[in-house]
Amino acid sequence: MMNDVVRCCKVCGETANIRRCSKCTQVFYCSQEHQRLDWRSHKRVCHPPGHSPGAASTSVQQPENRVQLPEQGTSESEILSARAEPLANENLDFRELIDEKDKKFLPSTMLVGDSDSRLNVNFRRSLEEQQRLEDLCMNLIRDMNAYGVCVMDKFLGDERGNKVRDEVINMYSAGLFKDGQLVSNKGRRDLRHIRGDKIIWINGKEPGCRNIDYLINQVDSIITIANKMKNNGKLGQYTIRERTMAMVACYPGSGSHYVKHVDNPNRDGRCITAIYYLNPNWDVHQDGGLLRIFPEGSVDQVADIPPLFDRILFFWSDRRNPHEVQPSHRTRYAITLWYLDAKERETALLRYQKEKDCNKINEKNNIVPNT
Q1: I want to staple 122 with a disulfide (CB 3.0 to 4.6 A). Which of 89, 294, 344, 358 is the partner?
Q2: According to the model, what pLDDT value does residue 34 have?
Q3: pLDDT confidence of 167, banded at 50, 70, 90?
Q4: Is the domain 76-87+119-350 a CATH 2.60.120.620 member?
């Protein structure tokens, strides 16, 4: 007896209220939205029963000299299978870390919620540092509201930035980096024509990563405060308690690049992308490596971000900001953090688990998925 195809949604694994693809009748979806999400990969194998893939087709073909651009960023399985990291010590009241005589000078915008609540950040800062932190948060809120992108220069300072760079170079020199992956690369294809970076995931607590840990804590502070401030605009639409581990990336020159893509095309929880650059004396005209963002809805406008040393960049992780890394002709280093919306992350984890369960059933019944 032949095994029938397991009836579950190809995208989320849902088994209730599913329908077949009307063209090939071989795969199932729970909704038109999920069918649209999967169409980019499914259309390559979607043929009527008995139809030869080599037969004439009415579908629109890409010109031969153009490469179809992926819409997926870093592998979704890497994001969803890994434990999310809590934001750095968000349960300590920063006011407890400041001298009693100085508390009355704290900026009023640091108060959140009702009149008795206080923002929680675990850093022993001077009033000057507190003011700088508040200014950075206000800049983030303003620019993310207006543009969906925010750039901050001289983020850590030369001394600390160079220490972070040294730690990254030490890891790369030790051979700890591996090829980056994509959301849709379930076939383990060679992806170097799509993304040419080498990466390693760390939490900052590893030996020799003290300064990277400091960087992570600084970025956590900005996101935590901006997410809890009053009148914080679009940032207030999210509940951000966790993030991914840090993805440390190296583009090793020789034209290594990352074609136009979206970090989070399928609602996996990532809402803010933060990238810190570690490239002194960078000249995009000679060295390349430009990050180009194509803001959604802007037909003739792009945001060009050179990967300059001690620069940090924030942008929305979803389909609002397709972007590319142009060919790099010199070794290019960056550290990326993705901040997670709690509700979307929870939904994505449930979907991911259903998909894993569905795949296990398929494997048990010797069913090869159509991908």
Answers
A1: 89
A2: 73
A3: very high
A4: yes
For residues 344 and 66, give the distance between their C-alpha atoms in angstroms, rounded to a whole number. Answer: 34
Distance between alpha carbon 310 and the CA centroid of its chain, in Å? Answer: 20
Q: How far is CA 155 from CA 69, 109, 152, 264, 278, in A?
A: 33, 21, 6, 26, 11
Q: Where are the domains of the chain?
A: 7-47, 76-87+119-350
The pLDDT value given to residue 240: 97
3-class secondary-structure state, position 271 = strand
CB 226 within 8 A of CB 137: yes
The amino acid present at 10, given as its one-letter code, is K
Task: Give strand pairing partners of 303.
Answer: 293
Q: How many Å apart are CA 129 and CA 197, to the nearest integer?
A: 35
pLDDT in tens, 45-83: 677 765 544 433 322 333 333 334 444 556 677 888 888
C-beta separation of 323 from 223 below 8 A: no
φ and ψ of 296, to 5 deg: -60, 135
Tokens (6 digits) for 59 = 């579908």
Rg (CA), the chain: 23
- Cβ 30 vs Cβ 16: under 8 Å: yes
Residue in 83, 353, 81 with CA at minimum distance from that of residue 245:
83
